[in-house]
């Protein structure tokens, strides 16, 4: 079983079944739903989902996300901790939320599912989309 961290865009599009997801990332997420992969999601993504739903920028809300998340043993929350913040110090040039999500991926030593060009261009994290 492989492990990945999904960023906010990946998890929103997957759970909402709306918007484009790269073919490799889409298959990884489908495999997680089938019990074949483990997906980690930063608590920062949950904060973003809460906010983006409140301002009607995404088609799902925090409660929908939590429900889908809790229905699977293959999705896990990554809490923010001081070690992740220390990793984030070495990932300059990203917006704060992206920086903390990318640092979570780096801290766990797993690829990130994202289409964010800034994260991809950083060269510090293996990106899959």
Protein model, in words:
The chain has 129 residues and is α/β, with parallel strands linked by helices. Helix content is 52%, strand content 15%. The chain has seven helices and five strands; from the N terminus they run βααβααβααβαβ. Strands 3-2-1-4-5 form a five-stranded parallel sheet. The longest helix has 13 residues, at 96-108. The radius of gyration is 14 Å and the shape is globular. The two termini are 18 Å apart.
Attribute tags:
globular; 129 residues; Rossmann fold; alpha/beta
List the helices and strands and how they pair.
Elements: E1 2-6, H1 8-16, H2 23-33, E2 37-42, H3 43-54, H4 62-70, E3 75-78, H5 82-88, H6 96-108, E4 112-113, H7 117-122, E5 127-128
Parallel strand pairs: 1-2, 1-4, 2-3, 4-5
Helix pairs in contact: 5-6
Under CATH, the topology is which?
Rossmann fold
Strand content: 5-15%
Largest sheet: 5 strands, parallel
Q: Which residues sit in consecutive blocks of at least 5 with pLDDT less than 50?
A: none
What oligomeric arrangement do these chains adopt?
A: single chain
Output the number of helix runs. Answer: 7
CATH architectural label: 3-Layer(aba) Sandwich
The tally of domains stands at 1
Overall helicity: 40-55%
- In total, the number of strands is 5
Give the class from helix and strand content and strand pairing. alpha/beta
Distance from N terminus to C terminus (CA atoms, Å) equals: 18 Å
Mass-distribution shape:
globular
Rg over C-alpha atoms, rounded to the nearest angstrom: 14 Å
